[in-house]
Request: fold
Amino acid sequence: MEPSVIENEVLESDVCEVHITSGLCPEDVDSLLEMAGTSGLFNSEEMIAAEDLAWGCAYQGSDASCHFLQARINTPKTEEPIGFLCFAEIPHWPHNYELFGIAVTPDYQRLGIGSALMAEMERMVTTRSGKRIFLETGDSRLFETPRLFYEANNYTMEQRFFKQFIPKDDAIVYCRTIESEKGLNCQ
Reply:
């Protein structure tokens, strides 16, 4: 064989499949919380909220108020979670959703996994007649990469407040319009 053919050959052991699942089992919670903690983007209050949401979703299933999506990788020896996203409809504001958090393990970042999780969330919101998805992120330099990620996924920074969605003092609100409707834009 020519050397170039050997160099381009993909070994079966190098191929992994990533798939997105909806929901959580109790055995998934610890690994998702570890992902959130190691990201460095969740403060202690947000970690407590993430834990409450995760356990609630794990035990309530489809009756839970929030939805978890997981990115899981299949290797020849195991299947493990490598990313997650949590979102819910905003109470008393029909058709508007909030993205509570997203994280992907460092070894799998910048491979499109976070964007795939966002796309699946948007598909699910669309099937529920959702119109907009809001999120809140920090305004410090620590959150520069997440802000660029949101912008790359068609989220726009809000320049005004909504009475149903008021950010913390050190936060920025982003919005993604899922379905254009007269007078219903994030901007």
The domain at 15-177 is CATH 3.40.630.30 (Aminopeptidase).
